[in-house]
Structures are given as C-alpha cells and as structure tokens.
Amino acid sequence: MDQQHLKQQKAMAGLEKNSTDCLPIDDYVKTYYLPVMYSIISVVGLMGNLLAIVIYLAKLRPWKSSSIIMVNLAVADLLYALSLPVLIQFYITRNWVSGEFMCRFIRFCFYYNLYGSILFLTCLSIFRYIAVVYPLKAAEIRRKRWGTLACLAVWAISLVEIGPMLGMITVQQKDNLTKCLDFASNDPQVVWWYGWILTVFGYVLPLLVVCWNYTHIAGSLGSSVSRHSPSRSRVRMLSILILVVFVLCFLPYHIMRLLRVDSLRRTEVSCIQRRGIHAAYILTRPLAGLNTFFNLALYTLAGDKFQQAFWSFVHGRERTSSTISVIHSPNMSKTDLLKI
C-alpha cells in the first residue's frame, strides 16, 4: 500500500510541477469558496434533516413505503452534513490533521450520500410510476416491506459502488502540509475508468429511469379527469423538483469530474487550463451537495401530511383527522395514488 501511495504522490507532483508559473485560481476557490458553501450546507442540512427525521418519527406513524424512503434519504443527508465540519477546517487551514483513515472516511461520506441520494430518488420515482400506471398494485406497493427492501438495496448497492474508492483516496505531503486529496485529484491512471463506471451506472442509468418513469406518469395523468386539481399540480412540482436535482446538482459535477481527471491524464494540457478545469470542478462539488436543500422541499411535496405534521410539531398540537391515511379503493383517482 505504501508503494501505491508513493506512486500516486509522484504522479501528482509531476503533474503539478509546471503549475507554479500561472495563477492558482483553483487554490483561491478552494480556500474561500468551499468553507462558505460547506458551512451553509452543514448548518441547513443538519437542522433541516434532523427536524425531518423527528417529524417522521413523532408525527407520521405508521409509515408507508414512501415514508421509509424519505427517512432514509434524510439520514443520508444528515450523515453528510455531520462530515462537513472536518472538511471546513481543512480548507481553512490548508492542512489535514485527522490522519489518512479520516481522510478516506470523510471523502467516502460525500460519495455515499451522493449515490445513495440518487438511488433513493430513483426508487421514489419507480414507486410512483407503479402506483399510477398500475393502480391495482398501488395498495401493495405502499406496504412498508417494499420501502424497507428498497432502502436496504440502496444502501448495499451504494456500498458496492463506492467501496473501491476507499483504496484510491490518499493524503499527500506538500510544502510541509498534509493534503487530503479529493477522489478526482488522486492518481488519474487509477481513478479514470472507475470514475466512468460511477458516472454511467451511478448517475446516467438512474437518470434515464427517472425520466422514463415521469414521462409515463405525465402521460397517464394527462388522461385523468383530475388533471387541473391541486394534487396534480403538486405532482408536477414534485416531478420537476426531482429532475432539477438530477440535472442542476448532479450533472455539472459528473461532467467536471471527468474533465478534471482527464486534464491530469494528458501531459499536453497547459497549467492555466488544468487549474481552470480544477476550479470549475471545485465549484460543482458543493453544488452536488445542495441536493440536501432540494430534498427538504421534497418532504413537503411528496404528500400533504408532512406539512401538516410540521405545523403540528411546531405548535405542539395533535394531528387533525385529515392526516389519517386514506385506505386505497378502486375509485381512487390517479392523482391521489401519487401520494403513495
């Protein structure tokens, strides 16, 4: 393992050897931009997701399948928010003091949350697709066991996807300081193909599934008599929100990560180009973490009960009878099925 680390450090040193004669714009972005963005994400993510978990535990029992998915999504976001203070301290001081194991673990937390969130949102879209396109299966898909099985599968698949990364991330000694390298800043020959595999199977494939699901949901709702109902408007906003998360938060990050690793692989890339690509890549990293903000809105749009439970929790009142779950019947409209 020490020989592998030495090889990575030599490779990175060689790549940066010609980078001292141009403006270190990536260092400026890393020092001044990342601590601010990570601080905002950490505070909002910690408070918002902790509150969401408490509401689900105290006010929204018994759970259905979508509730279980939402709680697990909140737990993933909460764990990510808890890992950020260590990174904030690192980018402010420019020196990693927590050891190599913590470097790997903290970087691992970001990717575990990233690809876990992608899969949780994909599962949510699949459940809604089944409920709308196959209404006779709606009562079955809302059972807790399906939500539990889906979440167990998400955690397991995410671990398989991200597990190899623990052996690729390392620390680097430079100018008497210790650097905890981001995944895309490690040895490019090691992370190049693995990065492509993560992009295709961890992001592109779930994106195609989500787009396919919501296209068919929109087509099915188009023939519904309740097309202008408030519930349908909420469903439209929910679909748009999930697609915005996939495109706005996740797409720029995956594109720039590939470009970042490619710039380290090719020796003909100039110093200013390499630093410019690195700076752009750094800008997209907190953007990917902003999915935690959109997920907070998702809890409300996923159904009308969370908002009522929130106000009940804030004001200390018991839930009204309107929050009681509605038993599925054959006459339930397609729009109502989307609350599942």
From TrEMBL:
Domain of life, per lineage: Eukaryota
G-protein coupled receptors family 1 profile domain sequence ranges: 48-299
Annotated GO MF terms: G protein-coupled receptor activity
Bilayer-crossing regions: 36-57, 69-92, 112-134, 146-171, 191-214, 235-256
Topological type in the membrane: Multi-pass membrane protein
Matching SUPFAM superfamilies: Family A G protein-coupled receptor-like
Main location: membrane
InterPro entries: GPCR_Rhodpsn, GPCR_Rhodpsn_7TM
One Gene Ontology CC term in the entry: plasma membrane
Keywords tagged on the record: Cell membrane, G-protein coupled receptor, Membrane, Receptor, Transducer, Transmembrane, Transmembrane helix
Compartment annotation: Cell membrane
Protein name: 2-oxoglutarate receptor 1
Species, as recorded: Carassius auratus
